Amino acid sequence: MNNRLMKLTFLKTCLALVALAFAVPSAPAITLKELVAKEGPPKLFTATKGVEMPTADQSNNFNEGDRALLLSGRELTDITGISTIKVSDDGVVKPVSEVKSLLIYFNHNQLTRIPDEVGTMHNVRFFYGEHNPLSALPDVFTRMRALEGIYFGSCRFTEIPPFVFTMKDLKKLQFSGNRITELPESIGNLTELRHFNMSKNRIGSIPGSMAKLTRLRVCDLSDNPFTSLPEAFGAVQIVNQLRVKNCPITTLPRGFATMRATIDITGTKIDPATLSPELRAKLDTEKPPGSKEWDKVIVKPKDFNKQKEK
User: Fold this and answer.
1) Considering all CA atoms of the chain, what is the largest pairwise distance in Å, rounded to the nearest integer?
2) Pair 122, 33 in one domain
3) Same domain assignment for residues 57 and 126
4) Residue 2 is assigned to a structural domain of this protein
5) Which end is more exposed in the chain, N or C (fewer Cβ atoms within 10 Å of the end residue's Cβ)?
6) Smallest Cα–Cα separation from 157: which of 136, 138, 139, 183?
7) Residue 9 or residue 98, greater confidence
8) Each residue's pLDDT tens digit, 142-191
């Protein structure tokens, strides 16, 4: 019996050692100030055609010459000081406020709040804060004069912060993968939106004011429990794609028959036979020919092929 116990103990020890050998150590939690004190001024990435982005962050919002502060996946718990830190720009150390056109990436961290000081960062074009335990944002985002897009997918939001609907110059808005239950009528204020992603939430209805978003190129409403789309929304001439995958809708607005975009109805309750021939012709999981502009993307990320599928 003792011999059997010894063998069992030995086997458990071996399995534990194997698991330890293959375990990926996680970085310790750290604040932005501590990170800068430890590593020095963060190096900016410069968007240059043909250069690969060193991270898997989204890269299709770059213009040539843009700078990016790449701080995703650093286990950051606090970014106080973000507006006043010094950065290394092609070897030249300067205040971050002196960078002309900046994209900021804080994806995959441990942030529970965004400090008010970001409102003074008038050089930021896109702000990424996805995969953080965030449930609220300060309204100072409205003061960021150059801001074109905000990305807060896979956080803990139960609503889109109301101030967002006053940001009438926003071109891209993403709150996918949250716990949002309502899309208010005020979404119609954001008439400059090109890309809108609210997939994987808990939205029970789509407001008629979506008809005001006349510049949409991609609209992703997939994986939500709403059962219909307003007929008025059918007047929007979406350019590339409308995604309503896995939504329990049974039909589509008739107006969608004249738009250029394709419509992905995978997993819905729509019987294609009940749609007009013109609407059936729009059904596809791929965007229309010529709408994928990856050949025009300045910078390609590490997982370029995965991003092409989005």
Assistant:
1) 79
2) yes
3) yes
4) no
5) N
6) 136
7) 98
8) 999 999 999 999 999 999 999 999 999 999 999 999 999 999 999 999 99
